[in-house]
Specification:
The radius of gyration is 18 Å and the shape is globular. 49% of the residues lie in helices and 11% in strands. The protein is mainly alpha-helical and 113 residues long. The chain has a two-stranded parallel ribbon. The protein has four helices and two strands; from the N terminus they run H-H-E-H-E-H.
């Protein structure tokens, strides 16, 4: 039986390539998922939003995250690691005019979406 041994750096590089390929391919699916370009699941609050109103729930998740960050009226920076096409950052920038946002993604395809 043949054995194939990859060193650690080769495994890391292969994993990175696989992740980039996944996100490059999934981006159009996420664009279908959310008109606001959210690439996450939503937040349901009984009697406040509907589980059938996807964009409302997706933006409520953004709202819940921002609320917990306790962003003040002073100038602030937001760094979104794994930002996708920037849906959460766009939401945050609409809500807080004192905010500067930086996004990091492995997918150059997502940067140009």
């Amino acid at each position: 039986m043949k054995t194939l041994t990859l060193n650690h750096l080769e495994k890391v590089q292969q994993t990175k390539i696989e992740m980039i390929d996944f996100y490059d391919g999934a981006t159009n699916d996420y664009a279908f998922w959310s008109k606001d370009l959210n690439m996450h699941f939503g937040y349901f609050i009984p009697f406040k939003n509907s589980p059938f109103a996807r964009n409302t729930m997706l933006n409520e998740m953004n709202n819940q995250v921002l609320k917990r960050l306790n962003i003040t009226k002073e100038k602030s920076n937001l760094i979104d690691l794994g930002c996708g096409v920037g849906g959460t950052m766009r939401y945050a920038l609409k809500k807080h005019n004192n905010l500067t946002a930086f996004g990091v993604t492995l997918s150059s395809f997502q940067v140009f979406k």
